[in-house]
Specification:
Elements (H helix, E strand, L loop, with lengths): L53 H9 L15 E4 L2 E3 L3 E12 L10 E10 L4 E10 L5 E16 L13 H7 L6 E19 L2 E16 L9 H9 L6 E13 L10 E11 L9 E13 L8 E14 L30 E12 L6 E12 L11 E14 L4 E9 L5 E7 L4
Antiparallel strand pairs: 1-3, 2-3, 3-4, 4-5, 5-6, 6-7, 7-8, 8-9, 9-10, 10-11, 11-12, 12-13, 13-14, 14-15, 15-16, 16-17
Helix pairs in contact: 2-3
Amino acid sequence: MRKAGFLFIGSMLVAGIAYGQAGHPADSLEVDSLRRRLPEKRPPEEDVSGQYDFSDMMRFIFRHGRPAPPDHNRSGITVVPNVAANPTIGAQAGIKAVAGRRLGTDPRTLFSTGATSASITTKGIIYFYVNHNLFTPGNKFNLQGNLVAAKTVTPDFGFGIGRPVDGKNPADSVLGDPTHKVYPIHSHYYNFREKVYKNVAKNLFLGAGLSYEIRTHINLGDTVNNSTPSSVYDNRHGFPKDHYIAGGFLFNVEYITRDNPNRAYKGIYFDAGVRINQTWIGSTKNSVQVTSDIRKYFSLSRAHPEFVFAVWNWGSYLVSGDIPYLELPGTARDGTYRSGRGYTAQYFKGTRFNDTEAELRFPIMNNQFISGVVFGNLQSGNDAHGTKLFQQFQPGYGAGFRVLFNKNTRTNLALDYAWGRFGNKGFFLNLNESF
């Protein structure tokens, strides 16, 4: 399963990762010329004195309970092993470095993060990436981007939402894959993406950017034409079978009131965008896609604000043109690759896709070191034999535990077990909440 399986204890060393933020810019009060401007209020600091995290535990074990030195900085650079094992990738070994800090001296500036990793697996997957999410002082600009170079193996389970195919030709049956057989697709993958957001009003950002997804040396495993779903799709939509480029412009609007991106207690996160792929900038095909990402968090207790009910809806919709098979929206194709727990990444896919999730998060220990969640999701998409978006739904559900790693940034380790249909189930291990 995607990012699933029995991951080694070495991955728990990510305790020092510095994903986090300290609220949003306070309002400035506009007054007339006869009155002086009132000073802005600083957001109150969260009281974490009663919380216990992984760093506290390590300090208790190795420093015999002595407190951290005054200049101790939890948001510096951390280098950790990148070790994992699951049926999709095999056994993985590598190294990972993460960093985080607040730029400038304004305490209202959101936390900036960056990460890089290099790894190799027993199934021949080699992966390297660098990414960043930077907020300039005062949140005037937000820069988001990543660079990826990889040799990959992508499991393919066909096109559509899993609705049975009746009375169609053999190629339709292969594309819809009613048996849910897995077809591995080998390729070399490169991605460059950069977006720049400008703060235009309280909590509101407008952004634009550019993204390129490039695949070469694609091997579909198709010894007879139209014997795999990706081969059928490529033939019908005119894509080369051994390479493609998806290059496009990005235009986004973002609204944020959530109090923390790692583990929100309250607020809203909203992002909607348009992607326009164009052949004149190198894209294999022209296309237009619309995406939306909406998240809402409800704190259910004043005494325990971490007792939260959260909802999420993510969607991607092809408006015109054609996009490559491996770039189709589907399971875990959201920006963080975490939607649709209970299924392997891209288990379902279509040109139009939507995922809705709900999660109840509750404390187990009073010091918040251990907490729990229960969750469910519904995925819907179209297919090539008449199924429309929201006509067919596929459920997933599960439960899990959270271990608090950094109480100052609300960074935690999320360990979930989830179930889906067609025999899908497994462990999903991530840093921080899925949404």
